[in-house]
Amino acid sequence: MKLELYNRIAAIQASRRSFMKGAAALAAGTALSSSLAGRAFAQDSVRAQILQIPGVGKGSPTDADWQKVGELCLAATKANVAEGEFAGVELTFMGLNNQNLHNFLFRGFLKPWEAYTGAKINWIDLAQADYNARLQQSIATGTVDFDIIEMGAPFEGDTAGRGLLDEMPEWVATQIEADDLVNYLKAPVGTWDGKTYRINLDGDTHTFAYRKDYFGDGSISGLADVPTHWEDLNALPAALAGKNDPLTGAPAYGFLDPLKYQWGGFGFYFLEDRATAYAKHPDDPAWLFDPDTMKPRVNNPGWVQAIQDVLDLVKANAYPPDQLNADPNATAFSQFLGGTGAALTWWGDVGSNARTSDTSVVGDVVGFSINPGAKKVYNHKAGAWEEKENFAPNLAYLGWGVYVTSRVSADEKKRKAAWSAAAHLGGKDISLWTSAYPSGFQPYRNSHFQYEEWEAAGYDRAFVEDYLGSNLDSYNHPNGAIEPRIPGIFQYYSIAEDELVKGINGQYASAQETADAIAAAWEKITDQIGRDNQIKLYKASLGM
C-alpha cells in the first residue's frame, strides 16, 4: 500500500476496518495491474505456502517447520550469494532463548541458509532477564565476542554510539525491502549519526488483550462493555470476587500485573503501560525525563498514580496467589493464555500464540485494543492534573532487530556472510510468518496488514482485524509514548524495577517514596554517564 494513501486515510481518521478493507483492495488491484505480475504471483505463492506451515489450529510449530519456512524463503539470498560462497566462515550469534522462541527459530530458519552458503553459526543463548547484564558487560569491557546480535533499538546508543556496530551495506536494504517498514520504525530508529545499522525483526508495542467472555450481558463481571480506562479496570476485581472463570472453572481475576517486575529492565515496561496514560500529556513529547535537564519525571503525580494503582490492588488481594513471583512471561503464557485473568497488556506474542500455541485455551474468546487510557492526565509543564480522557500507547522497546558488529568489518567475506544471515532473518516473506505464528515478534511492515493472507492461514477475519488493528492503532496513535534511544536506558529501567519491587514488598512507606527512590537512582546514572550528552541525545530522540 502506498504510504501517502495511508497517511491521507489516517488524517481523516478512517475506521480501522475500513482502512484494512481498502488496503486489501488496493493491494489486490496493484498486483493485478503491475507489469511484474508474474514475480508478484511467485512471491505471493511463497507467502501462501509458508502460512500453511503448520497452519492455524494445527498445533505449535516445530524445528522442522522453521526449517521448511527458512528453505522456502531462500530466494533473496540466492540472488546475492553463490552456493558455497561462505565455506569456512564461522559466525557467532547472540540472542534470546525466551519461551524457547527467538534463537530457537533462528536456528531453524538459518539451517537451510548454512547448507546453501557453507557458513557455520555458533550460538549464545540468553534468558531475557540476563540479556541487559550480558550486553553491558561486553560493552564495558570491550570484549564483544559475537558477530551478529539480536538487539532492540534502545541499545543503539550503547552500541552504535560506541562504534561497536558495522554499517549496513546498500544491497542488504534492497534485499529486505526496508521501505516496507511502518513509519515509526523508519529512521532515525536503526540509525546513528546518519548511518544505518539495523535489520528489523519486530515492531514492538504493548497492546491490551482481554477476555470477551468476561464482559457483556449476563457475564461474570456484570459489565456490558470492556473497560477502556485504568480507573475502571482497577475496580474489576471487586466485581469478580467469588466468581469462577467461564472456561476453566477456577477463580476469576481481573487485570494481571507482573508483580515480579525484575526482568532485566524489560519488566519496567509494564508499569509504563499504566503510567503513560496518566503522565504522557498529548502536548508534551517527554514523559520519562525533563528534556532540558534530564531530571526524572518518574516521581511526578502521574507516575505516582500508576504505582499507587498497583499498591492498592496488592493490598486488596486482587491478584492470583503468589503473584509476587509472577514475571511478565508468567502473566502472558502461564496465566492469561492458560485461562487465568480477565486482561493484561503485553507485546504481540499474545495475539499470535492465542490461536497457534498448544498451551492456549483462550483463542476463541480473546480480544484486543490499544492500551487502556485514563480519565485524567498530569500536565508536567503546568504542574497540575487535567480532568480529561487520555490515551498514550506504550511503544515499548521499538522492536527487536538484527545487527552486525564491527568485529567483522575488516574481513569482507565474513562481513558479507554476517549481513546475509541477518538479511535472511529479516526478509519480507519470513517476517509474515513470524508475525502470524509464535516467534517473539509482532507485525511491523505495511505488508503485514493485509488480512486476506492471515485468513488463508486459518485466522478468522474478525480476529485478524482486532489483533492487527490494535497494533496499527498503537503505532500510529498521535500520543504514542516513544522510547528514547539513549545510552544506559536499561540501566535506568533495571534499577527502577529493583526500587519498585521494594515498594510493593513494603520497604517504602508510600507510592511517592517508591517513586522518589527511583528518581534518585536515575539521577546518579545520569551523572555517571554525563548529563550534558544525555540531554542532547534525549532531545534528539524526541525530535526536539
From TrEMBL:
Residues 1-42 form the signal peptide. Belongs to the bacterial solute-binding protein 1 family. GO terms for cellular component: periplasmic space. Transmembrane segments: none annotated. It comes from Devosia insulae DS-56. It is found in: Periplasm. It holds the Pfam family SBP_bac_1. The keyword Signal applies. It comes from the Bacteria. The keyword Chaperone does not apply. This is Sugar ABC transporter substrate-binding protein. Its main location: periplasm. Keywords: Periplasm, Signal.
